[in-house]
């Protein structure tokens, strides 16, 4: 059973993963279907090096897993419930305040 502190740490880890637009796009792409890094890089229009860094972050957070497929590696969400959580979170945020931004301490948009 998770303690309150570990639940908070888990939610904070998920929040850090979602804090970057590329990682959000990656999670949404993997919500649709597992994919190989080269396909993800092409779909997102980013370099493979940049993609690799973001995939490593998501792997370290426990949100995605790397699955060996022959000589290649395919990435997928670590748990199918993450896809449902992303859908629910996106729907809730859009329903609550689609026209809002979230300024950070420096006055820039953080969302």
UniProtKB/TrEMBL annotation:
Q: Where does the record locate the signal sequence feature?
A: none
Q: Which UniProt keywords apply?
A: Cadmium, DNA-binding, Metal-binding, Transcription, Transcription regulation
Set out the biological process GO terms recorded for this chain's protein.
Answer: response to cadmium ion; response to lead ion
Q: Which domain of life is it from?
A: Bacteria
Residue intervals of the HTH arsR-type domain: 3-100
- Pfam short name (any one): HTH_5
Q: Per its UniProt record, what InterPro entries does this chain match? A: ArsR-like_HTH (IPR011991), HTH_ArsR_DNA-bd_dom (IPR001845), HTH_Metal-responsive_Reg (IPR052543), WH-like_DNA-bd_sf (IPR036388), WH_DNA-bd_sf (IPR036390)
| UniProt GO MF annotations | cadmium ion sensor activity; DNA binding; DNA-binding transcription factor activity; lead ion binding
- Does the keyword section mention Transcription? yes
Please give the subunit comment from the record.
Answer: Homodimer.
**Function text:** Metal-responsive transcriptional repressor for the cmt operon. Binding of cadmium or lead causes the repressor to dissociate from the DNA.
State what protein this is by name.
HTH-type transcriptional regulator CmtR
Q: Which organism is it from?
A: Streptomyces shenzhenensis
